[in-house]
Design goal:
- This protein is mainly alpha-helical and about 60 residues long.
- Helix content is about 60%, strand content about 0%.
- The longest helix has 14 residues, at about 20-30.
- It starts with a helix and ends in a 13-residue tail after the last helix.
Length: about 60
Amino acid sequence: MYQSEFTRFINGFLQQHPEVDTERRELRLTWWDRQVDLDALARYRDSKVPQKPYVYQPE
């Protein structure tokens, strides 16, 4: 089966440095694998105030 040079490099690197894969999995849990609070998200979107076309112009 064909593997590109980059794929072979990454596989070899991960075999030599298993802590990188462990850290990657932990960081993924931090940012991606979370439950979304839909009520909080809806409140956040509803509470946004529309920005004026020119923010530096006094009212």
